[in-house]
Amino acid sequence: MKKYYREFQVFKLLLLLLLGLPGQLLAQSTTISGTVRSATDQQILPGVTVAVKNTQMGTTTDERGRYQIPEVPNNAVLVFSFVGFKSLERPVGSNTTLDVTLEEDNAQLEEVVVVGYGTQKKREVTGAVASIKSEDITKVATNSFTSAIQGKVPGVFIAQTSGAPGGSASVRIRGVGTTGGNEPLYVVDGMPLGGGSMGISGSSDRVDGLSVINPNDIESIEVLKDAAAAAIYGARAANGVILITTKRGKEGQAKVSLDAYTGVQQLWKKPEFLNAQEFTTLANELYTNSGMTPNPEWANPASFGEGTNWIDQVFRTAPVQNYDVSVNGGTQKLKGALSLGYRDQEGTIMETWYKRYTGRASADLQANDKLSFGSSLSFSYSQAKGQQNQDLRIGIFNLAQQFYPTLGREDVVNGSSAYYTTQGDNPYLRAKSIDNQVNNFRVFGNAFGVYEIIPGLKFRSSVGLDVNNNRASTWEPRAERGHYRNLQATLGETYTQGLNWLLENTLSYTKVFGEHSVSAVVGQTAQNNNNNWVSVTAREYQNEQIRVINSSNENNRRASGTGSEYTLASYLARVNYAFKDRYLLSASIRRDGSSNFGPNNKWGNFPSVSAGWNITEESFMQQQTFISNLKIRGSWGRLGNDAITPFGYLSTIRLGTVNDNYVLGLNQGLVIGATMSKPGNPDLKWETSEQTNIGIEASFLNNRIYLTSDYYIKNTKDMLISLPVSIEAGFQSAPSINGGKVQNKGLELLLGYQNDIGAFHFDVSGNLATLRNEVMSLGVGQPITGPSVTNYFTVNATYTEVGQPIGYFRGFIVDGIYQTNDEVNKTLQPNAVAGDFKFRDINGDNVLSDADRVKIGNPWPTLMYGSNIDMSYKGFDLNIMLQGVAGNDIFHANKRSAYPLKYFGGTGVVNGSKNVLNRWTPGSGRNDVPRLAYTDSNGNFGNSSSFYVEDGDYMRIRNLTLGYRLPGDLIRKTGLVQNARIYVNAQNLFTFTKYSGFDPEVGSTNPMMAGIDDGVYPQPRTLMVGVNLSF
Amino acid sequence: MKILSIRLACAFLLATTASCSEDFLTLQPKDVLTDANFFLTESDAQAALIGVYDNLQKEPTFTNFADAAEIEWAMSGDMYEMDGSAARIEIHSLNLPASNTIITNMYSGAYQGIGRANMVINRVSKMDQLPADTKNLILGQAKFLRGLFYYRLANYFGGVPLVIDELNASSKLDIPRASVEDTWKQIEADLKEAAAVLPANWTNNADKGRATKTAALGFLVKASLWQQKWDDAAKYSEEIMATKVHDLLPNYRDVFRESNENNKEILFSTQFRASVDAEGNNLVKRTAPRGAPSEFTGSAAWSNFVPQPQWVNAFEKDQTGKIKDRRYWQGIIGPGEAHQDMPNFVMPVNVPAGWSRTGFIVTKYWEAPTLNNGGVNAPILRFAEALLNYAEALNETGRSEEAMRQVNRVRVRAGLTEKPLSLTKAEVLDAIFYERRMEFIWEPTGAFSDLNRRGRFIDFIRNNRANFSQLGVDKKPWLATTPIRLPIPREAWNRNKSLEQNPHYTF
């Protein structure tokens, strides 16, 4: 047909030349016009492209959906095309008017998703992949895209680890498979992005390392959940993979957009603490109970009244503002995008803030028919100031809970150490004096070329680079605030430089042979990661206004530094095959070699296979209209996790650290020493996880109801564990071995309903995921005792053993309180008196021993759920996102400092929770808070027990946005603005929980510390207003 | 740069050749050495030996804190624990649960030292390139230190797992306890080898502070006393005397001075220097009174332990009731008394409870404020103890008169009158134990372990501890054994189920 037409054109030209006659005499032509409407609702469609097939002739419909094309030959064919609709061809024939209706394109089916090293039509995907588009990402206005996934993708559990400005989140895809690293692999435009979070020296706050990616720059996020989807990333994919695709230039006139919002954040909940009168009353009771003389200063509690509320002194309403500008546009051959962002956020805790400047530029050039190039470059500069919070004794947050309500804002502790702790410090003055900051500059980008060798066969080569420079500084001036002393001003500076490059070559082929369609990719990659740091601590400043190393006492400076390097070489291949669009098969393999592993296990192979069946494509399904789409799929694959300390296969000798050196000689000179820091294990290799997944994707009633569900079993074997070696072996640190086996299994479900009723559009979906995490084996290892809750609360709250989830809470069960001295079982609890906790003697041997410590809680939610509601009516849009967890517990370690009133590990008393008013007193019959006492000889607080464990369920209205798009006519009158939307947004508007602490969302990067609230910076509630403009 | 370009080229050429990718993937750690490229030279061997010495500086091992204050003197009750920390209360009240963190850390600290020593002994003995005498000196010191760490364990736990080989990840690591006899045998073997090769005195000033022959002999004496091998104890003591390296200093306070470290009274001490890190120690912070002005105490003052009144009252007094003993005036300050080295610091007459609940402070180690960590060495074994150990051995071998001569040397230095040489054997032993008590407060000797070794501990606390009736000694069967053992830590049993607990304790 095409060939015939070309011949006709040549013929026509010849005739014109020969005869000099007007062309229209030869072929009749006419002016054609009509209206284009949507087939579903008969709405007029402006902007539809109407082209005369195989010519340059054409137009677009006007605002009333009308078009007109003069001089169209009556043998011509009109092609109507419009984004979101199926294109339509109609012959002109003898018509002069041609009204058409366009069918909506089945967007869900033709959606394209990004998979590793390529893209795939959603209908052909056979793995468990969840996709989130840019409009959903920007709905939640935060610094990190992780917030946008939270509660949206079943099976992905995200908990913010801190409410600090710029704070980070822990992301767990399908449970925790190991006691080691559980963070997924992040790949941005093909480049792995390292560095989940950055610590602020001298502070417990962390800044999200991923916030180098401005959420506004993201086109889509794909979460590769199962092995079939993730196996192409081999030895790093066991924790799942998150692919981030950034926005690139699109053909068309340059479009400029501006997004801006501003708002305030504050605590959504303030647990109450004792006021001055209550505190002094209880302090007197505590001293009297312990046979000690109460503080004469506190003899008259009523005289103190309310006193100072230190929570109010330290927490504040904090502003946040964010601006993003972007330009996007291009021609068919050259497209570009540019964006700039600025964020300024203060923290709800005083003297904490975060500032970020981001920029991103990308360009795509179609050099000729076969060759194209592209590149993108992002930079970000971020600054954050943090405070030490997560410490049960000296953190600002904890001091705010403990400091004396009898003292004023600028008061310091000078009183007798029998009553006032000498290690306490005024939190307000402390926060003012300490200056701990991190400054991060990161440049991140790649450049690639694609050459189409023959149609369908493309060679792509890409170079990626990630340069990460970090400067962390700590400053504390010389201070003597009552008992608190820092006799020398101290400045610490740490510079870290990371250089990470990636080379990638792939060859891809796509071909359709009749009813068979095949696509394949093979490739090779090489990656090198280099890190170096230098750190200096300088003390003793003559003049504290000059805060540089050089102005410190030269003899009082210490430097340290080191470096590390890591390389990864890989080969990969994948083939997808589809027959009649019905039967889908896919297989992939990756072979990874890592410098982290020894010669015995340098390389590993990570295969996967998967299959799918599009049942609705079958002829027997064509008659029915109830099911619009139905696909079942299944997959199996093997993945690796190589996130361990490098060189674990070698026995390493550490040289010259303070833990090796000694002093000798009359003048006590330093002598350098060496020790074996860790015995090597030559057989050390990556953890392997094997995952089986079956899934179903379906939609009904013309896609109004949609559903995705997956069931998986993920078995991790060869889990890297630190061999819990006997103490007698005398190792400085335990060698790593491939010991354990962990199983995660769960069901994921996403169910939604969308419809349009006139101009009212809505899309309501809910999702849930169940999770069962169980340690199946610890190999030769013994149960693993988790780390101390903090340096001071040296209780090991978690335990990992076979048959239980990783890091479950373990301790004594408290069976209430002994009401009388007679009731006390002195054999079991020799030091207990009336008012102390009654610990349960599990094994009945009348001795309270380790055998009586049992499971008292599970840190992992067994059910995670979310809901997303989108509605729009004319110019209005509304988004509500809920997210919740159930079945988990929280170890409320903060009770250790907020309940005893006695300052632990020191002298004196401190303030505590208002709940202490419910403490046991003789005859009170109370059973939850023990008696007040100066010493804790029964271990009421010193033991890990059910006293600390609380129900961790919560449900949160994470996001609520109400927007209004200003009417187009009104806007266009400005002559400048094309589109304008204003909105109000609330985050964490309501939280439903029984948890008594500040916030139930206590993520932790360490799976052995999950669910422990040791004074986590609480999540704020945020209220904002914003505007989106495009020009 | 060249390596980088090779790598780049390799990477770009699809890394198709096997050698290319192997080169690319084979890296050596930048920040640590591996055992394959260590133990090649003498300096490697010396550095590894220093690594063993380093282990002495950890608080749970030989810094005169966990052992001396938290265990020895807290158990005998002569020092009072100020803070009410749970772990210290467990020891002070003689509850001694297997979960006690002080005992656990002491146990694991000793085994870390043993592990370090085992590596040196194993590797250095195979270094044929070293001159024989260099090698012997290194091995001798390592064996002394291993013996010292095992002495610590035998002293508190009895028989313990004997690890004398270097272990690795694939070794059998659940090692059962050896008998107490075999444990002492191992300790004696190490100490004897050390005594045979180490000099009585290191001539090079830079070597002062290293283990010596007399240190090894001194611990052989202590090991013999434990086993009641009195003749051996006397024999080793005489070998110490024969070196003539050691003597009492005329002035008690001078023994501890930072300016006078490694003096002739010291047989062995853990070396420290003032520092921001663990090359210094916390002895000043832990003794100086909490809340006192920083110009005297320095960056921190915790007064963790203070002398109990019964100990102060035990000092001999003159007719006016004034304490005669110089060891009080040179090592303690009480209400209204001025600091020995900082006369401007005077304890208030009414000492605030935060400074010291008893009114007294030990100033042995606190001679000046410290900005960070203090530099005063921690004396582990000194000549005064060698004399009293010798006296004990002499007394048990029927030479009580000679024994009293040794005791009197210690008394005279303290400014006390000599006791008659005609005391009975039992009286001599009492006299020895009296001097131990008054001489060594806040040192790792003279309290619980010595009393326990001779079965005198329960009687001692019955007679001396004010809170004896509340201790419930009768209800604590672990206090009824002779000698009393500490519990094998639960943490050790968690990881090594072949360990057996000492009688009457549970894991």
TrEMBL record, chain A:
Keywords: Cell outer membrane, Membrane, Signal, TonB box, Transmembrane, Transmembrane beta strand, Transport. It is found in: Cell outer membrane. InterPro entries: Beta-barrel_TonB (IPR000531), Beta-barrel_TonB_sf (IPR036942), CarboxyPept-like_regulatory (IPR008969), Plug_dom (IPR012910), Plug_dom_sf (IPR037066), TonB-dep_OMP_SusC/RagA (IPR023996), TonB-dep_OMP_SusC/RagA_CS (IPR023997), TonB-dep_rcpt-like (IPR039426). Residues 417-989 form the TonB-dependent receptor-like beta-barrel domain. Coiled coil: none annotated. Residues 121-241 form the TonB-dependent receptor plug domain. It is a multi-pass membrane protein. The keyword Transport applies. SUPFAM superfamilies: Carboxypeptidase regulatory domain-like, Porins. This is SusC/RagA family TonB-linked outer membrane protein. Belongs to the TonB-dependent receptor family. It comes from the Bacteria. GO terms for cellular component: cell outer membrane. Residues 1-27 form the signal peptide. Pfam families: CarbopepD_reg_2 (PF13715), Plug (PF07715), TonB_dep_Rec_b-barrel (PF00593). Its main location: membrane.
TrEMBL record, chain B:
Pfam families: SusD-like_3, SusD_RagB. The keyword Membrane applies. It is found in: Cell outer membrane. This is Membrane protein. Residues 39-222 form the SusD-like N-terminal domain. The keyword Cytoplasm does not apply. Residues 1-20 form the signal peptide. GO terms for cellular component: cell outer membrane. Keywords: Cell outer membrane, Membrane, Signal. Residues 264-505 form the RagB/SusD domain. Gene3D superfamilies: 1.25.40.390. Belongs to the SusD family.
